[in-house]
Known about the structure:
Chain A is an alpha+beta fold.
Amino acid sequence: MDIIFNNIYDQMPKIFKEHTIDMRECSWCDPWVIGMICLKSIEYKNFRDKNLILPKNKDILLYLKRMHFDIFMEELTYINFLDPLNKICINEKDNPGVHEIMHCNFRDEFNARLSSKIRKMFTGFGMSSDNEPLTTSLVGEMGNNVFDHNEGLWPTDVRGAIILAQHFPTKNKTEVVVADPGIGFLGSLKPSNPSLKDDSEAILLGLSGVSGRVGEKRGNGLKVMQDWTLNRFDGTVRIQSGGGLVVVDKNGKHTSSVGPILGTLVSFVVKYN
Amino acid sequence: MIIQLSKFNSVLNSRPSAKEAVLRIYQMVNGSVEKEKIILDFTGVEVLSPSYADELLQSLENKYGEEKIEIINTVPAIQETLRAVEIHG
């Protein structure tokens, strides 16, 4: 079964159950779903009964291997569940449209990767010299937010920004996902906006350009990301934080309550010629 | 006074990095602003994030006044960020 953004919320009770991540029936998934699995694996990390069941399908196993999913999960102490991936040897050049998961624990690590690996990744995807710097600065903005809003407040013993990306060459589009196991929009904005009722409301406030903490005037980063993604790249922005989901596309903002995650998951899809 | 921003990095990202740059620029300017403009030269800068641009320009404009700041040698991607910060700032 393909598990992608459009059906992940229906499938959540089946895939994430009692500290088990069950991907056995999965035959395909998109970067959004991988980002969510990364956050769930952090949420379950310290439970003694945690479990990861990898897919049976060989194509998706190859895709996960190409993303270095095994290295990320090993870091999170899931080593006992990774046999199907450890048995696979791949040529790294087999799929240049998929980039490996980058887990940046600290801001400096993120900045260094932004200047080198992330730029090279977009150039490798075939982006023009006009689009690459803008897309890089969008990722920069997302990564900045992760560290600006969570330093000193990480809820678990795993910190940082998790970045993954996939290029769809036939559709001329790239999806970039930035995930973080942090306090989320509501956790960050509630102290300065006590009237906020839920996660979706906090995301909408952040998208409107109000994302400063107490005593801080700032917050145009998310607005610019929204503006460029929609108007320059004809794309889509998705943000899930806790149990709130907001999707912004050319038809407007769509809000829903969904199965909760730890932290925040942001993706933007950019289309270009 | 010309400030070569590429000496900070060719990828200018994050508010904390901009705060550090602003402190360095205060030190470099050190009183000379009374006689001359502060020219921010973007030659060699390839990526500029909106938060870096916002922090840099707001801090310098608040301290020295908007009329004292001039921006030169920007590529289209940098111009786009500066425009976005102006619109959304």
